[in-house]
Specification:
single chain; mainly alpha; 0% strand; globular
Length: 121
């Protein structure tokens, strides 16, 4: 169960990364900014990071929570940037889906997260 929670916490960072990516005009997205404000994306970033830290601290301790949270932001940020350059539309859709699976899993909605993961894959 701890591995599932760590994976969900890692995937949850994709939700905020998508929100941050849509606040800046990026050629890879093929469109200008979507009109979303940076402050809303920063609020989502803070909420997701706090949720990740709380869930991982509960299961693995605060050192592991800090390391997993920081490494997941670096890893998924890097992967999302690489995928944005190749497949902008598909990478945005899949990042949102996987981020939602992560948020549902971290928030304790296990059956819904499993169903969403089955529908996505």
């Amino acid at each position: 169960m701890n591995e599932w929670l760590a994976l969900c916490a890692s995937l949850a960072s994709l939700t905020a990364l998508c929100a941050l990516a849509q606040t800046t005009p990026t050629r890879a997205w093929g469109e200008p900014t979507s009109g979303r404000s940076l402050s809303l994306a920063q609020l989502k970033l803070g909420g997701v990071m706090l949720l990740q830290l709380m869930a991982l601290t509960y299961t693995a301790g605060w050192v592991a929570a800090l390391l997993v949270t920081l490494s997941s932001w670096m890893l998924w940020g890097w992967v999302l940037v690489l995928l944005m350059n190749q497949w902008p539309g598909a990478s945005l859709r899949w990042a949102r889906r996987l981020g939602m699976v992560g948020l549902l899993g971290v928030s304790g909605l296990w059956p819904l997260a499993f169903a969403c993961a089955a529908m996505c894959g």
